[in-house]
Amino acid sequence: MVLKTKPFDVAEHLNTPEDIRIFLQEVANAGDDSDLIHALNTAARAMGMTEVAQKAGVTRASLYKSLADGGNPKFTTISKVTKALGCKLAVA
């Protein structure tokens, strides 16, 4: 019998705005810049890229490009996406 597996995608487990907020907080506290960009990508996929792009006032294509591995989004993009996800940036 062959065991079938599939790659783990955390986006499939971010079901509520609270899940997304906690996920982004953990990454912001423990990760680096590229980890946060990747986490924003994951959270945006969980909510729906089209919805996040509309709320952020950017095109879906530019959102994918900005948040892709190796992407280098502007701070304004990060701020808009964070707000679209129902979160806010804070300095503590």
Automatic annotation (TrEMBL):
Coiled coil: none
Annotated signal peptide: none
The name this protein goes by in its record: Addiction module antidote protein
PROSITE patterns noted in UniProt: HTH_CROC1
Domain of life the protein comes from: Bacteria
CDD domains in the cross-refs: HTH_XRE
Annotated HTH cro/C1-type domain residues: 49-92
NCBIfam families per record: dnstrm_HI1420 (TIGR02684)
TM ranges: none
